[in-house]
Structure formats: C-alpha cells, structure tokens
Amino acid sequence: MNGPDEARSQALEAMRDRAIEQVLPAVATFGWTTRALAAVGWSDAEARSCFPGGAVEMIEAFCARADRRMEAAAPGLPAELRTGERLRALVAARLADHRTHRPAARRAFAVLGLPANRGAAARTLFATADAAWGAVGDRSTDMNWYTKRATLAGIYGATLLVWLGTDDPDDERALAFFDRRVATTARLGRLRRRIQTGLSLERWTRPS
C-alpha cells in the first residue's frame, strides 16, 4: 500500500472507531442503523460516507475495533504464559470488552447470524482468530497458518454463542466451554496424528 492510500485507510479506520465508540450506547435502542448514529449526532450523509455498506459494515467495524483492542492487551500478558494460555487470555479480554456493551454485541451477532450475512460472519471470526494468533507471535506459514486460524475461529465462534446466552459477570461459563473445546480439539489432533502414523506404517509394513 502506498503512502496516500495508507493515510486514507488510517483516516477511515479512525473515523469508524470514533463512530463505533459513540454509537454503542444507542445501538441497544436503535440497533445497528443510521438512526443510532443520528441519535449521537451524526448526519445521514456522514453515516453513509463512513459506512456505505450499512449495518453489516458497521458491525464489521465494531469487530475490527475489538480485534485491535484485543491485540493491544497482548503486551501486558505475563511473559511466562504458554501460547495456549496467551490465546485464552486474549479471548477472555475480547469477551470482557464485549461485556461492557453486551446489548450492542448481542444485536451485532444476531445480524451476522442471518443467512445473508454468513460471509461477513466468517470474515469477522477468521479476522479475530488471525489477530489473536498474530498477537501471540505466531509465524507459521502455508497450511499450518490456515489450520490454526480456522480451528481457533471455530472454537471462538462456538464460545461466543455460549457467551451470548449467558449473563455471567466474569464470563466463567463461556471460558469453561472454550477450555473444553480446546481440550477436545487437542485430543482429536493427537488421535488424527496417531491414525496417520499408523496408516503410514501399515503401508510400509504390509506384505507384498
């Protein structure tokens, strides 16, 4: 990206962050709409200029802002934490951030849950997983890069559904679910590797 394009992108990002910060309290009443932005002082022209894609674009900006806030929490994590523990801490930070505006978060994910918005839902989940892995220093490449992010996106998406159905002040049930899904995924991964190893050995030891 060249200089002018990058500057425009950063300016738009800053404007959207400001809009999201201001509109969150109004979303509980008006939903993710230009009416919510109007309620906090944005003109219709300003709202459409900032979010030409409407509600879905507002929600994607909301999720992207949450991703950056999650990334900003990474440097403050204890250095002795292992990678899995750091990922869990970032997921906990992400849920805690949503908790401060739970009605807006619930409305956001209700919109993303509509069949027409499956693409946007997948993009936001994958972006969150990518941000989390990047924040813990992952430098994997090729298929390993994609597998890690797809796996975490699936686990986080399921955890988010649990979180949306609870009102825990500390997100305990959602995080316990996250832990169980991670443990199950790890066991399945080990089983898959053993099966693959067994099939490989069988191929080489099978009598001709």
From TrEMBL:
The keyword Transit peptide applies. Residues 121-188 form the COQ9 C-terminal domain. The keyword Transit peptide applies. One of its GO terms (molecular function) is lipid binding. InterPro entries: COQ9_C, Ubiq_biosynth_COQ9. GO terms for biological process: ubiquinone biosynthetic process. Keywords: Lipid-binding, Transit peptide, Ubiquinone biosynthesis. Pathway: Cofactor biosynthesis; ubiquinone biosynthesis. It comes from the Bacteria. Membrane-associated protein that warps the membrane surface to access and bind aromatic isoprenes with high specificity, including ubiquinone (CoQ) isoprene intermediates and presents them directly to COQ7, therefore facilitating the COQ7-mediated hydroxylase step. Participates in the biosynthesis of coenzyme Q, also named ubiquinone, an essential lipid-soluble electron transporter for aerobic cellular respiration. PANTHER family: UBIQUINONE BIOSYNTHESIS PROTEIN COQ9, MITOCHONDRIAL. Belongs to the COQ9 family. This is COQ9 C-terminal domain-containing protein.
